[in-house]
Structure formats: structure tokens, C-alpha cells
Write a structure and sequence with these properties.
By secondary structure, this protein is α+β, with helices and mostly antiparallel strands. It contains two helices and nine strands; from the N terminus they run βββαββββαββ. The strands form two sheets. Strands 1-5-7-6-8 form a five-stranded mixed sheet, covered by helices on one side. The longest helix has 13 residues, at 38-50. It is elongated.
Length: 162
């Protein structure tokens, strides 16, 4: 289980998909990508989907995703995405009253119970008091992270001239 904070964008793709019965049907699928801007998000989703979709497809929508963080699960059965709303509880020192702030998370899991377990696994390591307000399965197909390539430390950036 790992978590990642980034700039997330939800992208919708429309294309003709061959269904299980062999017929073609126009479908719209939602994905999440890590990008710095709307134009980079469009570029990234086109690049990612080009290897999966043969034929034409259109990016029909891009919007800033409302997730503070995404919790990834590498288990082969973790094939669904859940939107979780958590409330963090703090105590106001002056008034001695509870203050609650809400944050949405996207959680990868194989089931509803697995999503709750994954939330508790990641959040349980922190010092914050929290409550899980809601967990709901999304229609997201996948999430594409921007994975920075690790530089090769063996080679210098510039070759020395003799």
C-alpha cells in the first residue's frame, strides 16, 4: 500500500469498444492522470490510451480531480477505485471545541471492505484523528501516475574535455 499526492485530473475518453458479444458500442470511460496543467493532462491521457485503443477516440472532458491523495494497492485483486471522504478532527485551543475538516481520497482496492482496510492502513500511521465519512465505488477505469525516471548515477551529466 502506498499513497501519493500530486496534481490529479479526471479525463473522459469516448471511443468505439468491442463488447463481450462482439458488437461495437460507443462508450465513455473515465481515467485519472497526474499532470501539471489541463493541456499536459490531455497529452498524457492521449499517450496512455493510444496503446490500448485501436482506432479513433476523443477526450470529451478534463477536470481537476478533487482528491487530496491517492492510495495505491499493488494486489492483483485491487481492480476498483473508491472515493473516500475523511474528516480530520482537531481541538481548538481557545474555545476547546472540535474542528472538523474534510478531504477526499481515491483508494484502490478489490472491495468496499478492502478500501476501508487500505484507508486505515495508510491513515493509521499518522498522528491525526480521523473519521471515514463515506466510501463509494467510482466508475474510474484506471489511474496513471507520472513516474519520474531515476537518473543513472554512473554517468556524469557532462563529459569532461581532455
Amino acid at each position: 500500500m502506498r499513497s501519493r499526492t500530486a496534481n490529479w485530473f479526471e479525463c473522459k475518453i469516448r471511443y468505439e469498444k468491442i463488447m463481450d458479444d462482439g458488437l461495437q458500442k460507443k462508450v465513455t470511460e473515465a481515467y485519472v492522470v497526474d499532470a501539471l496543467s489541463f493541456s499536459e493532462a490531455e497529452e498524457r491521457i492521449i499517450e496512455e490510451m493510444s496503446s490500448y485503443i485501436s482506432g479513433e477516440f476523443n477526450v470529451t472532458d478534463i477536470k481537476k480531480a478533487p482528491y487530496g491523495e491517492i492510495f495505491f494497492d499493488d494486489a492483483p485483486t485491487a481492480d476498483r477505485w473508491y472515493k473516500a471522504k475523511l474528516q480530520f478532527i482537531t481541538l481548538d485551543e481557545k474555545t476547546q471545541k472540535e474542528k472538523r475538516s474534510s478531504i477526499n481520497y481515491l483508494v484502490q482496492a478489490g472491495s468496499f471492505n478492502g478500501a476501508v482496510k487500505n484507508i486505515d492502513e495508510v491513515m493509521g500511521t499518522g498522528m491525526s484523528t480521523y473519521e471515514i465519512v463515506s466510501v463509494a465505488e467510482t466508475m474510474l477505469m484506471d489511474v496513471y501516475e507520472h513516474l519520474a525516471t531515476k537518473p543513472n548515477d554512473d554517468k556524469p551529466e557532462f563529459e569532461e574535455q581532455a
